[in-house]
Amino acid sequence: MDRETSCQLFALSFDAKEPASLARFWSRFLDWETVDDPQDGIVLLPGDDTGFRLRFLPSQEPKTGQNRTHFDLTSTSLEDQRRTVDRALALGARHIDIGQLPEEEHVVLADPEGNEFCVIEPGNNFLADCGFIGALACDGSQEVGYFWSKALGWPLVWDQDQETAIRSPHGGPKVTWGGPPLEPRTGRDRLRFDLAPTAHGDLSTEVDRLLSLGAKRLGTGQDETGSVTLTDPDGNEFSVLTPR
């Protein structure tokens, strides 16, 4: 991370009708430790090189439409792919149809609250050097890929045909954007990025930097936790948290 990049991807937040139940599913599925944090709610800490945590926040808004972000999970063999799918189903996931073609070899599932994720077939070259969470796959424009590369200080690892991907210099999952056409927005994003200033950053300076890169402020200022909500160039909400 270069000196001018003063924030990190702290967490991916899930809105959930039953946060404890959804956190339990993902904790068991990923084998990540659960922490009940008075500041951050129910949190899962990664047990690998993922580099960010998962937060589960209460929300009574119903899920409408397909999420704009989902996990692509990797497999080492067809048997490994089957084991991953079977484990997910045993924990409460289900098969879903989002228009995938019969010849496509990845398996599309949804967690107990309907959040989509894919178990990718073995031999996927793009995710070959990634861990179990191979990618956060997002619906988004080329412009938003450039924005997040600058916002996080992560280099572009793919930029072709308006599709982009970035990855932390320290490894972990790739974050990908599939380019146009974008799916219509249906309500608030249920999965959102949470950024946190690094040791040499502060909240107001970081918010100003992100605004200069193309973010927009949502609302009038800090919420009750002191965090600031912004939107990226595609209109996706994200939060800049108070320094940890």
Automatic annotation (TrEMBL):
Residues 129-243 form the VOC domain. Gene3D superfamilies: 2,3-Dihydroxybiphenyl 1,2-Dioxygenase, domain 1. Residues 167-188, 218-244 are annotated as: Disordered. CDD domains: VOC. It holds the Pfam family Glyoxalase_6. SUPFAM superfamilies: Glyoxalase/Bleomycin resistance protein/Dihydroxybiphenyl dioxygenase. Signal peptide: none annotated. InterPro entries: Glyas_Bleomycin-R_OHBP_Dase (IPR029068), Glyoxalase_6 (IPR041581), VOC_core (IPR037523). PANTHER family: CONSERVED PROTEIN, HYPOTHETICAL FUSION PROTEIN. This is VOC family protein. It comes from Streptomyces liliiviolaceus.
